[in-house]
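Two quick folds needed for the group meeting slides. Do the first one here.
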Amino acid sequence: NPIAGTYKRTGNDEEDALNAEKLIADPKENAEHVMLVDLARNDLGRHCHNVKVDVLKEIQYFSHVIHLVSKVSGKLSAGANTIEILGDTFPAGTLSGAPKYKAMELINKYENINRSFYGGGIGFLNFNGDIVHAIIIRSFLSLDNVLYRQAGAGIVSASVEENELQEVNNKLGALKRALTLAEQL
């Protein structure tokens, strides 16, 4: 399910409702979201028929941000292989961008750090071939007494660097809050 398009939550219900209206009307955030819905449709279309968008640009509220969320589904084609489907749809467009393969080449070329666990998947594979997994974003990794956290923002032609950096910080807000609460235990 594509999740893209982000505004900050304020903690004030009235302001958050106004921000949600701004989000749904924001051309840049909508362009980012629609691009990822199209990518999800394309990815699923490789192994499914009757691919459709069940939900388009639903506003969802999270602890520190407001997102646009869509749901894309399809009927598996005969002979579809679960592992191949996972390989063909991973990484999700929200982590790679589009066009996916060119975007991944650019990420590998220009990002100055290894993403490590960030953007990877966690889940399980049943004996019947079902896969249940989630993308690892806005999470901590504890390694050798160092706590790592990462978040990202979708970059499109209308992106403004300062706004994208603020989006990353907004997304990290929940992790910062969790760490603060954990330190008080």
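Then this one, please, same format:
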Amino acid sequence: MISISDLDFHFGSRALYDGASLHIKPKDKIGLIGLNGTGKSTLLRLLVGEYKADGGSISMSKEVSLGFLNQDLLSYDTHESILHVAMQAFEEALRLQDQIDKILVEFETNYTDDLVEKLADLQERFEALGGYTMQAKAEEILEGLGFTTEELQKPLKSFSGGWRMR
């Protein structure tokens, strides 16, 4: 569940949000539609904590997982695969995966109850964020956008601007 109450956000003197409220229940599916510059990306940045609201509150239940890919992929020049780039939407789960991997390496020389407990906590959060299914979700979304299974491993920079923006 995501709840936004009396949200205020300004860019300089321009108010993008003035007392905005929104409630998204589990299993709701929503779309953000609006003209350029009306605050769609800003709302997502507020939700993921990239921006801080000027007023109001944003709360999410702990099982909520948000992914956000920057819309500026046309200038993103990388040899990484399109799948790898899409997986960056799961930033928090990927960060947890890195922490889990480090603990597993540390187990080789320092196996302690504290590390076991820390690993269990990280794995629980990782699972709650959909970490075990994130690659399958990314593949499903990309294939739904028209990319073939083979294209998922191609570098992002090999695609035209239109295909990158998909």
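Slide caption for protein two: Strands lie at 2-11, 14-24, 55-60.
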